[in-house]
Amino acid sequence: MIEIRGLRKTYRSRKGSVAAVDGVDLRVGEGEVFGVLGQSGAGKSTLLRCVNMLERPDAGTVSVGGLEMTRLRRGQLRLARHGIGMIHQHFALLSSRTVAGNVAFALEVTGAPRAGRKQRVAELLEMVGLTGRAEAYPAQLSGGQKQRVGIARALAARPKVLLSDEATSALDPETTESILRLLHDLNQRLGLTILLITHEMTVVKRICTSAAVMRDGRFVESGTITELLRTPGSELARGLFPLDGPTEVAGATVVDVTVSGPEAEAPIIAELARRFASDVRILGGSVERLAATRAGRWRIALPGAPDDNREALKFLSERGVVS
Ligand SMILES: Nc1ncnc2c1ncn2[C@@H]1O[C@H](COP(=O)(O)OP(=O)(O)OP(=O)(O)O)[C@@H](O)[C@H]1O
Protein backbone atom coordinates (compact mmCIF):
# COMPACT_ATOMS: atom_id res chain seq x y z
CA MET A 1 0.00 0.00 0.00
CA ILE A 2 2.90 2.33 0.81
CA GLU A 3 6.23 1.77 -0.84
CA ILE A 4 9.22 4.01 -0.26
CA ARG A 5 12.57 3.53 -1.94
CA GLY A 6 15.83 5.37 -1.38
CA LEU A 7 14.16 8.34 0.25
CA ARG A 8 16.35 11.35 1.05
CA LYS A 9 15.56 14.80 2.35
CA THR A 10 18.19 17.31 3.41
CA TYR A 11 17.45 20.68 4.98
CA ARG A 12 19.92 23.40 4.15
CA SER A 13 20.36 26.56 6.16
CA ARG A 14 23.10 29.08 6.81
CA LYS A 15 24.25 26.96 9.75
CA GLY A 16 24.83 23.95 7.51
CA SER A 17 22.81 21.05 6.22
CA VAL A 18 20.92 18.26 8.00
CA ALA A 19 20.16 14.97 6.29
CA ALA A 20 16.78 14.48 8.01
CA VAL A 21 15.98 11.35 5.95
CA ASP A 22 19.09 9.66 4.66
CA GLY A 23 18.15 6.72 2.45
CA VAL A 24 15.03 5.01 3.78
CA ASP A 25 13.31 1.99 2.20
CA LEU A 26 9.92 1.04 3.59
CA ARG A 27 7.03 -1.17 2.58
CA VAL A 28 3.71 -1.12 4.38
CA GLY A 29 1.27 -3.79 3.19
CA GLU A 30 -2.48 -3.26 2.98
CA GLY A 31 -4.09 -3.39 6.41
CA GLU A 32 -0.76 -3.29 8.21
CA VAL A 33 0.03 -1.00 11.14
CA PHE A 34 3.63 0.09 10.77
CA GLY A 35 5.34 2.06 13.54
CA VAL A 36 8.48 4.13 13.13
CA LEU A 37 10.09 4.55 16.50
CA GLY A 38 12.81 7.08 17.19
CA GLN A 39 14.00 9.88 19.40
CA SER A 40 13.49 13.55 18.72
CA GLY A 41 15.39 14.66 15.61
CA ALA A 42 15.65 11.14 14.14
CA GLY A 43 13.78 12.25 11.02
CA LYS A 44 10.40 10.63 11.69
CA SER A 45 8.21 13.67 10.93
CA THR A 46 10.11 14.42 7.77
CA LEU A 47 9.67 10.83 6.62
CA LEU A 48 5.93 10.92 7.34
CA ARG A 49 5.48 14.27 5.61
CA CYS A 50 7.23 12.93 2.53
CA VAL A 51 4.49 10.27 2.18
CA ASN A 52 1.78 12.81 1.38
CA MET A 53 4.27 15.28 -0.13
CA LEU A 54 3.89 17.91 2.57
CA GLU A 55 7.67 17.72 2.15
CA ARG A 56 9.20 17.13 -1.26
CA PRO A 57 11.96 14.53 -1.06
CA ASP A 58 15.32 15.29 -2.72
CA ALA A 59 15.63 11.74 -3.97
CA GLY A 60 13.78 8.44 -3.96
CA THR A 61 10.26 7.33 -4.74
CA VAL A 62 7.08 7.23 -2.67
CA SER A 63 4.11 5.28 -3.91
CA VAL A 64 0.78 5.08 -2.10
CA GLY A 65 -1.85 2.63 -3.39
CA GLY A 66 0.18 2.28 -6.58
CA LEU A 67 0.32 6.04 -7.24
CA GLU A 68 3.81 7.48 -7.54
CA MET A 69 3.42 10.59 -5.39
CA THR A 70 6.61 12.36 -6.46
CA ARG A 71 5.37 12.54 -10.05
CA LEU A 72 1.91 14.00 -9.43
CA ARG A 73 0.99 17.52 -10.52
CA ARG A 74 -0.67 19.84 -8.07
CA GLY A 75 -4.29 18.91 -8.93
CA GLN A 76 -3.56 15.20 -8.99
CA LEU A 77 -1.72 15.47 -5.70
CA ARG A 78 -4.72 17.16 -4.08
CA LEU A 79 -6.91 14.24 -5.14
CA ALA A 80 -4.35 11.67 -4.04
CA ARG A 81 -4.20 13.29 -0.60
CA HIS A 82 -7.92 12.60 -0.12
CA GLY A 83 -6.94 8.94 0.03
CA ILE A 84 -4.43 9.63 2.83
CA GLY A 85 -5.76 10.82 6.19
CA MET A 86 -3.47 12.38 8.75
CA ILE A 87 -3.70 12.92 12.50
CA HIS A 88 -1.45 15.14 14.57
CA GLN A 89 0.02 15.35 18.05
CA HIS A 90 -1.72 18.64 18.81
CA PHE A 91 -4.93 17.74 16.98
CA ALA A 92 -4.96 20.85 14.70
CA LEU A 93 -8.68 21.52 15.16
CA LEU A 94 -10.47 24.73 14.15
CA SER A 95 -11.32 26.37 17.47
CA SER A 96 -14.14 28.47 16.01
CA ARG A 97 -16.01 25.43 14.73
CA THR A 98 -17.93 22.80 16.65
CA VAL A 99 -16.97 19.13 16.62
CA ALA A 100 -19.46 18.53 13.79
CA GLY A 101 -18.18 21.67 12.04
CA ASN A 102 -14.59 20.43 12.15
CA VAL A 103 -15.56 17.13 10.60
CA ALA A 104 -17.84 18.80 8.06
CA PHE A 105 -14.95 21.07 7.07
CA ALA A 106 -12.98 18.04 5.90
CA LEU A 107 -15.95 17.01 3.76
CA GLU A 108 -16.22 20.54 2.30
CA VAL A 109 -12.54 20.56 1.40
CA THR A 110 -12.77 17.23 -0.38
CA GLY A 111 -15.84 18.43 -2.31
CA ALA A 112 -18.29 15.88 -0.87
CA PRO A 113 -21.85 16.65 -2.04
CA ARG A 114 -23.68 18.91 0.40
CA ALA A 115 -26.71 16.63 0.62
CA GLY A 116 -25.06 13.69 2.36
CA ARG A 117 -22.68 15.65 4.58
CA LYS A 118 -24.78 15.81 7.74
CA GLN A 119 -25.36 12.12 7.74
CA ARG A 120 -21.69 11.38 7.03
CA VAL A 121 -20.63 13.62 9.92
CA ALA A 122 -22.98 11.71 12.24
CA GLU A 123 -21.58 8.42 10.95
CA LEU A 124 -17.99 9.53 11.53
CA LEU A 125 -18.72 10.81 15.03
CA GLU A 126 -20.35 7.51 15.87
CA MET A 127 -17.34 5.67 14.53
CA VAL A 128 -15.01 7.50 16.93
CA GLY A 129 -17.41 7.41 19.89
CA LEU A 130 -18.35 11.08 19.94
CA THR A 131 -22.08 10.93 19.30
CA GLY A 132 -23.61 13.49 21.62
CA ARG A 133 -20.64 15.88 21.44
CA ALA A 134 -21.37 17.20 17.95
CA GLU A 135 -22.21 20.71 19.11
CA ALA A 136 -19.31 21.10 21.54
CA TYR A 137 -16.35 23.36 20.72
CA PRO A 138 -12.76 22.06 20.88
CA ALA A 139 -12.06 24.09 24.03
CA GLN A 140 -14.79 22.11 25.82
CA LEU A 141 -13.22 18.74 24.99
CA SER A 142 -10.62 16.58 26.74
CA GLY A 143 -7.40 15.73 24.89
CA GLY A 144 -8.68 12.27 24.01
CA GLN A 145 -11.93 13.68 22.64
CA LYS A 146 -9.99 16.22 20.57
CA GLN A 147 -7.95 13.41 19.04
CA ARG A 148 -11.18 11.54 18.28
CA VAL A 149 -12.35 14.57 16.33
CA GLY A 150 -8.98 14.58 14.55
CA ILE A 151 -9.47 10.92 13.64
CA ALA A 152 -13.06 11.48 12.42
CA ARG A 153 -11.84 14.37 10.28
CA ALA A 154 -8.97 12.31 8.87
CA LEU A 155 -11.41 9.55 7.87
CA ALA A 156 -13.97 11.87 6.26
CA ALA A 157 -12.92 11.13 2.68
CA ARG A 158 -12.76 7.37 3.33
CA PRO A 159 -8.98 7.12 2.98
CA LYS A 160 -7.26 3.77 2.65
CA VAL A 161 -4.20 5.07 4.49
CA LEU A 162 -3.86 6.92 7.78
CA LEU A 163 -0.67 8.75 8.76
CA SER A 164 -0.30 9.33 12.46
CA ASP A 165 2.18 11.94 13.67
CA GLU A 166 2.73 11.24 17.40
CA ALA A 167 -1.05 11.06 17.85
CA THR A 168 -0.88 10.03 21.50
CA SER A 169 2.18 11.96 22.68
CA ALA A 170 0.14 14.74 24.27
CA LEU A 171 -2.19 12.33 26.08
CA ASP A 172 -2.05 10.66 29.50
CA PRO A 173 -1.47 6.87 29.58
CA GLU A 174 -5.13 5.94 30.03
CA THR A 175 -6.30 8.16 27.18
CA THR A 176 -3.41 6.88 25.06
CA GLU A 177 -4.74 3.35 25.60
CA SER A 178 -8.24 4.32 24.49
CA ILE A 179 -7.00 6.11 21.35
CA LEU A 180 -4.77 3.15 20.47
CA ARG A 181 -7.75 0.84 20.94
CA LEU A 182 -9.78 3.03 18.58
CA LEU A 183 -7.01 3.00 15.95
CA HIS A 184 -6.68 -0.77 16.26
CA ASP A 185 -10.46 -1.12 15.90
CA LEU A 186 -10.53 1.12 12.80
CA ASN A 187 -7.65 -0.84 11.32
CA GLN A 188 -9.64 -4.05 11.78
CA ARG A 189 -13.08 -2.73 10.77
CA LEU A 190 -12.09 -0.63 7.78
CA GLY A 191 -8.95 -2.46 6.73
CA LEU A 192 -7.19 0.86 7.19
CA THR A 193 -3.43 0.85 6.59
CA ILE A 194 -1.68 2.90 9.27
CA LEU A 195 1.81 4.39 9.21
CA LEU A 196 2.61 6.01 12.53
CA ILE A 197 5.58 7.71 14.06
CA THR A 198 6.18 7.68 17.77
CA HIS A 199 8.84 7.85 20.45
CA GLU A 200 6.81 5.57 22.73
CA MET A 201 7.43 1.84 22.80
CA THR A 202 3.90 1.30 24.21
CA VAL A 203 2.43 2.42 20.91
CA VAL A 204 4.42 -0.19 19.01
CA LYS A 205 3.52 -2.81 21.58
CA ARG A 206 -0.22 -2.14 21.48
CA ILE A 207 -1.03 -1.78 17.80
CA CYS A 208 1.87 -2.29 15.40
CA THR A 209 2.21 -5.37 13.24
CA SER A 210 5.57 -4.12 11.91
CA ALA A 211 8.04 -1.53 13.08
CA ALA A 212 11.33 0.20 12.42
CA VAL A 213 13.81 2.02 14.60
CA MET A 214 14.96 5.29 13.05
CA ARG A 215 18.14 7.07 13.99
CA ASP A 216 19.96 9.93 12.23
CA GLY A 217 17.70 9.68 9.19
CA ARG A 218 18.07 5.93 8.73
CA PHE A 219 16.31 2.74 9.71
CA VAL A 220 18.65 0.78 11.94
CA GLU A 221 16.27 -2.16 12.08
CA SER A 222 12.92 -2.95 10.55
CA GLY A 223 10.53 -5.88 10.08
CA THR A 224 7.38 -7.52 11.34
CA ILE A 225 7.17 -7.70 15.12
CA THR A 226 7.44 -11.48 14.91
CA GLU A 227 10.61 -11.22 12.78
CA LEU A 228 12.12 -8.65 15.11
CA LEU A 229 11.42 -10.81 18.15
CA ARG A 230 13.29 -13.60 16.39
CA THR A 231 16.29 -11.40 15.57
CA PRO A 232 19.14 -11.85 18.03
CA GLY A 233 20.17 -8.53 19.55
CA SER A 234 17.11 -6.66 18.20
CA GLU A 235 16.78 -3.28 19.88
CA LEU A 236 13.02 -3.34 19.39
CA ALA A 237 12.67 -6.79 20.93
CA ARG A 238 14.63 -5.55 23.95
CA GLY A 239 12.49 -2.43 24.13
CA LEU A 240 9.23 -4.36 23.85
CA PHE A 241 10.34 -6.63 26.67
CA PRO A 242 12.79 -4.92 28.97
CA LEU A 243 14.33 -7.65 31.11
CA ASP A 244 15.47 -7.07 34.62
CA GLY A 245 17.45 -9.52 36.72
CA PRO A 246 21.23 -9.99 36.88
CA THR A 247 23.17 -10.69 33.70
CA GLU A 248 25.70 -12.80 35.57
CA VAL A 249 25.29 -15.45 38.27
CA ALA A 250 28.31 -17.23 39.79
CA GLY A 251 28.56 -20.85 38.64
CA ALA A 252 25.69 -20.49 36.14
CA THR A 253 25.08 -19.62 32.48
CA VAL A 254 22.67 -16.71 32.13
CA VAL A 255 20.70 -16.51 28.88
CA ASP A 256 17.78 -14.46 27.57
CA VAL A 257 15.14 -16.46 25.72
CA THR A 258 12.58 -14.81 23.40
CA VAL A 259 9.68 -16.75 21.92
CA SER A 260 6.65 -15.65 19.94
CA GLY A 261 3.48 -17.14 18.49
CA PRO A 262 2.34 -20.57 19.73
CA GLU A 263 5.69 -21.10 21.47
CA ALA A 264 4.78 -18.31 23.90
CA GLU A 265 1.95 -20.51 25.24
CA ALA A 266 4.06 -23.66 25.49
CA PRO A 267 5.56 -24.71 28.83
CA ILE A 268 9.11 -24.30 27.49
CA ILE A 269 10.81 -23.58 30.80
CA ALA A 270 9.04 -26.51 32.48
CA GLU A 271 10.13 -28.81 29.64
CA LEU A 272 13.67 -27.46 29.88
CA ALA A 273 13.73 -28.20 33.61
CA ARG A 274 12.31 -31.67 33.14
CA ARG A 275 14.65 -32.69 30.35
CA PHE A 276 17.92 -30.86 30.91
CA ALA A 277 18.30 -28.57 33.86
CA SER A 278 16.14 -29.25 36.87
CA ASP A 279 17.71 -26.36 38.78
CA VAL A 280 17.01 -23.73 36.13
CA ARG A 281 16.16 -20.39 37.74
CA ILE A 282 13.98 -17.69 36.20
CA LEU A 283 15.63 -14.33 36.92
CA GLY A 284 13.09 -12.14 35.12
CA GLY A 285 10.62 -12.03 32.29
CA SER A 286 7.01 -11.99 31.15
CA VAL A 287 4.53 -13.16 28.55
CA GLU A 288 2.57 -10.44 26.81
CA ARG A 289 -0.01 -9.95 24.10
CA LEU A 290 1.26 -7.72 21.33
CA ALA A 291 -0.92 -6.47 18.46
CA ALA A 292 0.30 -9.12 16.08
CA THR A 293 1.29 -12.01 18.30
CA ARG A 294 1.77 -13.30 21.79
CA ALA A 295 5.33 -13.30 22.98
CA GLY A 296 7.40 -14.22 25.98
CA ARG A 297 10.85 -13.27 27.12
CA TRP A 298 12.74 -14.67 30.07
CA ARG A 299 16.19 -14.35 31.60
CA ILE A 300 17.18 -17.67 33.07
CA ALA A 301 20.19 -19.13 34.86
CA LEU A 302 21.30 -22.66 33.99
CA PRO A 303 23.63 -24.25 36.56
CA GLY A 304 27.16 -24.76 35.19
CA ALA A 305 29.20 -23.40 32.31
CA PRO A 306 27.88 -23.03 28.72
CA ASP A 307 29.64 -26.24 27.78
CA ASP A 308 27.74 -28.14 30.48
CA ASN A 309 24.48 -26.83 29.02
CA ARG A 310 25.01 -27.52 25.35
CA GLU A 311 21.92 -29.70 24.99
CA ALA A 312 19.72 -27.33 26.94
CA LEU A 313 20.88 -24.35 24.86
CA LYS A 314 20.22 -26.27 21.66
CA PHE A 315 16.71 -27.07 22.87
CA LEU A 316 16.06 -23.39 23.62
CA SER A 317 17.51 -22.19 20.29
CA GLU A 318 15.18 -24.51 18.42
CA ARG A 319 12.18 -22.89 20.10
CA GLY A 320 13.15 -19.25 20.19
CA VAL A 321 15.94 -16.78 20.21
CA VAL A 322 18.69 -17.19 22.75
CA SER A 323 21.08 -14.33 23.46
N1 LIG B 1 11.99 22.71 8.14
C1 LIG B 1 13.20 22.38 8.60
N2 LIG B 1 14.30 23.14 8.38
C2 LIG B 1 15.52 22.78 8.83
N3 LIG B 1 15.76 21.65 9.53
C3 LIG B 1 14.71 20.85 9.82
C4 LIG B 1 13.38 21.17 9.36
N4 LIG B 1 12.54 20.17 9.77
C5 LIG B 1 13.32 19.29 10.46
N5 LIG B 1 14.61 19.70 10.47
C6 LIG B 1 15.74 18.96 11.08
O1 LIG B 1 15.74 17.64 10.54
C7 LIG B 1 16.04 16.68 11.55
C8 LIG B 1 14.91 15.68 11.63
O2 LIG B 1 13.75 16.34 12.10
P1 LIG B 1 12.32 15.64 12.26
O3 LIG B 1 11.38 16.66 12.80
O4 LIG B 1 11.98 14.96 11.00
O5 LIG B 1 12.66 14.55 13.37
P2 LIG B 1 11.67 13.78 14.36
O6 LIG B 1 12.25 12.44 14.56
O7 LIG B 1 10.29 13.86 13.85
O8 LIG B 1 11.80 14.60 15.69
P3 LIG B 1 10.66 15.38 16.51
O9 LIG B 1 9.85 14.30 17.16
O10 LIG B 1 11.43 16.20 17.49
O11 LIG B 1 9.91 16.18 15.50
C9 LIG B 1 16.27 17.47 12.82
O12 LIG B 1 17.64 17.67 12.99
C10 LIG B 1 15.55 18.78 12.59
O13 LIG B 1 16.18 19.83 13.29
From TrEMBL:
Gene3D superfamilies linked to this entry: 3.30.70.260, P-loop containing nucleotide triphosphate hydrolases
Chain ranges of the ABC transporter domain: 2-241
Molecular-function annotations in GO: ATP binding; ATP hydrolysis activity
Signal peptide start-end: none
InterPro entries for this protein: AAA+_ATPase (IPR003593), ABC_transporter-like_ATP-bd (IPR003439), ABC_transporter-like_CS (IPR017871), ACT-like_dom_sf (IPR045865), MetN_ABC (IPR041701), MetN_ABC_transporter-like (IPR050086), NIL_domain (IPR018449), P-loop_NTPase (IPR027417)
Gene Ontology biological process: amino acid transport
Keyword annotations from UniProtKB, A to Z: Amino-acid transport, ATP-binding, Cell membrane, Membrane, Nucleotide-binding, Translocase, Transport
Protein name in the entry: D-methionine transport system ATP-binding protein
Source organism per UniProt: Actinoplanes philippinensis
Upper classification of the organism: Bacteria, Bacillati, Actinomycetota, Actinomycetes, Micromonosporales
